[in-house]
Amino acid sequence: xxxxxxxxxxxxxxxxxxxxxxxxxxxxxxxxxxxxxxxxxxxxxxxxxxxxxxxxxxxxxxxxxxxxxxxxxxxxxxxxxxxxxxxxxxxxxxxxxxxxxxxxxxxxxxxxxxxxxxxxxxxxxxxxxxxxxxxxxxxxxxxxxxxxxxxxxxxxxxxxxxx
Length: 163
What we know:
Blueprint: E1 3-7, H1 13-26, H2 38-47, E2 50-56, E3 62-70, E4 79-86, H3 96-109, E5 114-121, H4 125-133, E6 137-138, E7 142-147, E8 153-162
Parallel strand pairs: 4-5
Antiparallel strand pairs: 1-2, 2-3, 3-4, 5-8, 6-8, 7-8
């Protein structure tokens, strides 16, 4: 399966909302609790510095996405943050790597110097493996930093990469 990562467009809203909401409903990766609808999703994805979509080269289907935005303001405004989501039925097909690589390029294009992940959940072994492969630096561990859907707290592991 060939993957192309491209910029989000309004026509992609329904597919992007579906993917984003899958992650929210699973309750094991994103800090958000509220689901998006078409209207709030369009607003959310267009207000980011950049939203990228991983699409199947043959069918054009949206398989995953990322959002890129500043991690902070002012004197720390050169640090960006991203969140990644892959559609549940296509996970394990290495769609995350092109999303991360594209976000690093887009981060540079938008003038960011550092990409920081604030809250990689320790149980997200596939993401942790990918970030190690791509040269991200682990900053430490925040014990019990993430409330899982089942009610227990899981450690989070912040990371960064110089762009």
